Amino acid sequence: xxxxxxxxxxxxxxxxxxxxxxxxxxxxxxxxxxxxxxxxxxxxxxxxxxxxxxxxxxxxxxxxxxxxxxxxxxxxxxxxxxxxxxxxxxxxxxxxxxxxxxxxxxxxxxxxxxxxxxxxxxxxxxxxxxxxxxxxxxxxxxxxxxxxxxxxxxxxxxxxxxxxxxxxxxxxxxxxxxxxxxxxxxxxxxxxxxxxxxxxxxxxxxxxxxxxxxxxxxxxxxxxxxxxxxxxxxxxxxxxxxxxxxxxxxxxxxxxxxxxxxxxxxxxxxxxxxxxxxxxxxxxxxxxxxxxxxxxxxxxxxxxxxxxxxxxxxxxxxxxxxxxxxxxxxxxxxxxxxxxxxxxxxxxxxxxxxxxxxxxxxxx
Length: 364
Hints:
Elements: E1 6-10, H1 15-26, E2 30-37, H2 56-69, E3 72-77, H3 79-95, H4 102-121, E4 126-128, E5 133-138, E6 141-146, H5 163-167, E7 169-170, H6 178-187, H7 191-194, H8 210-217, H9 221-225, E8 229-231, E9 237-240, E10 264-269, E11 274-278, E12 284-295, E13 306-310, E14 318-325, E15 329-339, E16 346-351, E17 354-361
Parallel strand pairs: 1-2, 1-4, 2-3, 4-7, 8-11
Antiparallel strand pairs: 5-6, 8-9, 10-11, 12-15, 12-17, 13-14, 13-16, 14-15, 16-17
Helix pairs in contact: 1-2, 3-4
């Protein structure tokens, strides 16, 4: 056993998780690599080549690095638990007229649970992932902070992690830029790895066609929702759409009709299968409701606190105040109008670089 202890590293086969494992190995940890098979893309009926973290190539890449570096590597099949929770939620949220974020749901309810379960079985005290973020502690509470590289910061997708998860989690590359990580891969002799492209796809929708995925998942869906009405903000019918689940708040392209001027999806009504189209100003809001909040830095809602709230990944964030509201929700009042707030997406609250907490944007 290494003096620094044994650590389980989630390895997708990509450059970030691979450098994470190599870095910890060089630092003297006894690294155990693990690659989680969350989805078999062939079973979804997609036409594109399987790519990303669940592909055979990625799994083989992770295993090869482990062999090269001389540490153990395991492949764990969690497709059943992943599918039952993450994919069912993904489908049901679109059917409810909302826009889900499956990666956050997976982190919160599947991935960390699976990692900690295997860490215990393999006698690993800690787990590590290749996220660009940091774990900090203050007054006995642990919380996620932004990574050093603002272009790669992934703190937004980690708001759901519990205190127990954070107490055993490391993000070794959080203090580095993407360029630093690519250079490390080169320095270790992995030139091809250093050039490996980024993957921004949902692992079970590697062709980025979520509409096609929904149609394959629910064969009767398209026929049941086709022919709904586009409405203007006054309620007048101005066209026909292909079905409300196939549109998202803020969408301008792909509406299937020309209106002479830009129109944006401003509201989705699943009960009536209608979609409201408006001008860009109709997307602006100065408040929202957030549910299912996980508080990180503080044990409860800091009533009335001024924070920066992000409503989507790579959003710059807007100054706002947060207040309690009925049903354990948080009311967010923005100090400037925010465009395209989509129910189902995550809202994450920041104090400087630190995540105070986050939750799911609710319909209003």
